[in-house]
Amino acid sequence: MPHHGNEAEHSEEExxxxxxxxxxxAEGNAAPTDGDALSQAExxxxxxxxxxxxxxxxxxxxxxQAAELRNDLLRLQAEYVNxxxxxxxxxxxxxxxxxxxxxxxxLPVLDDVDAARQHGDLEDGPFAAIATKLENALKTYGxxxxxxxxxxxxxxxxxxxxxxxxxxxxxxxxxxxxxxGYRSGERVLRAAQVIVAVPA
Length: 200
Hints:
Elements: H1 2-23, H2 30-118, H3 126-139, E1 143-146, E2 158-166, E3 173-179, E4 181-184, E5 187-190, E6 192-199
Parallel strand pairs: 2-6
Antiparallel strand pairs: 1-4, 3-6, 4-5
């Protein structure tokens, strides 16, 4: 009955192999896998806590950076406002100087107009109208004539060429204007040449 013995041996071998087959499906290792998953979850949770602290620090750093950028922006804005004011002021000064340059160049023409008017050449006719238009146009640019008599002598707007004793006066007074002066706003373009009456 060697054949049966072989069957028993085969069955024992098969039975001996069965535990190996049952052990084989445990290749997933449920318990160790669960332990690894828990440890991994703890590591993940622990890892999340660290970035939370870092996020607070990074939030403070971001806030400090935002404050610094805001200060830089305010400083740049102030610099831009000052620059714009300076440019506008320089532009206004340049425009004023250009107007003054034109007015100064026309003063000899106005002197000729005054001389012609004193000689009676501009009492009527087209040239009188042209002279009036010219003077009115220059007034729109702030040109003002200094030619009043009977006013107190002011060295800032008058140039005294002659002094003579005056009657019934207590201060130096402009008695006659020899050549008109002109100013534009507060700027004196040319002082008026005058004869001054002084108290006797």
